[in-house]
Amino acid sequence: MFEATLYPPIEPYESGYLAVDGAHRLYWEQCGNPQGTPALFLHGGPGGGCTANNRRWFDPQRYRIILLDQRGCGRSQPTGELAANTTEHLLGDIEALRQRCAVERWLLMGGSWGATLALAYAQRHPARVRALVLRGVFCARRSELRWLYQEGASRLFPEAWQRFVAPIAAAERHDLIAAYHARLNNADATLQMNAAIAWCAWEDSIASLLPYSSTGTIDAAATLALARIGNHYMQRRCFLDDGQLIAHAHLLRDIPAVIVQGRYDAVTPPITAWELARDWPQATLQLVADAGHASSEPGILRRLIAATDGFAVQP
């Protein structure tokens, strides 16, 4: 179902590196129709990176598809770098890429952390956003962080939770984000890597209603970057004021959106998407009854493709 529903694989017609402050060089690429509707895909994490499949969310005949690996992520350099890596920096990077690509207005698509970043950018630059397609909305509120990293999802997945807390001494478990931060930034490379594997495995194991299985193959550099950057952001509540993105929903009043949300999403529970949509009349919330968090779940995937199809403009 996953392979059959996405658009066929394509290759970029242009790619490069955008030099920004803090010695970061950001990988970007463009695919599809150069005359099509501009669309920027924002990957999750924080700390993830774009993949070839991310090009396939959009009709390549109707979209000019732009992908960006965020600071320290994917093919951007240096890998895993935390210095000069904040939400404010990323918002500036997106705007710099828009100017580099000479885009007047674009559609933004993102899930989880990608949705966070899309919302923050749209609230900062509403005149530059044509539409939003969001999945598994995460707004980095204290309540959301507590659910994921302290108490909430732990009650639904006790066996995965036991593996997550196992590397942490009992005396430190009152603040697991801080405890992991200490290990992920420790000089001991083995301690770092073990913490990174446990950090990433926790979210992976609760993301989908489909059975979770590890391939057994670990890309050490990518895993460490994902864990360190993700923890760096969570430690600081993604550099956002508590409740900021929902409180500022009125700034999105001229931007249409589709929000696709799994009913049984254990990573980003539906309450956040529901509260955002409640305060944003131009957004259509689609609750998927048989899905969790992962974009690969069939019900989520179909609705995301339908959303990008719906916002496409004939070139």
Q: Please report the number of helical segments.
A: 12
Record the strand order, biggest sheet.
1-2-4-3-5-6-7-8
Assembly status = single chain
Spans where pLDDT lies below 50 across 5 or more residues = none
Shape: globular
Quick overview:
This protein has 315 residues and is an alpha/beta fold. The protein has twelve helices and eight strands.
Care to describe what's here?
The chain has 315 residues and is α/β, with parallel strands linked by helices. It folds into 2 domains: 2-141 and 240-311, Alpha/Beta hydrolase fold, catalytic domain (Rossmann fold, 3-Layer(aba) Sandwich); 142-238, no CATH class. 38% of the residues lie in helices and 16% in strands. The protein has an 8-stranded mixed sheet with strand order 1-2-4-3-5-6-7-8, sandwiched between helices. The chain starts with a helix and ends with a helix.
What's the topology here?
Blueprint: H1 2-5, E1 14-19, E2 25-32, E3 37-42, E4 63-68, H2 87-100, E5 106-111, H3 113-124, E6 129-135, H4 142-149, H5 153-156, H6 158-165, H7 176-184, H8 189-206, H9 220-235, H10 244-247, E7 257-262, H11 270-278, E8 283-288, H12 298-311
Parallel strand pairs: 3-4, 3-5, 5-6, 6-7, 7-8
Antiparallel strand pairs: 1-2, 2-4
Helix pairs in contact: 2-3, 6-8, 7-9, 8-9
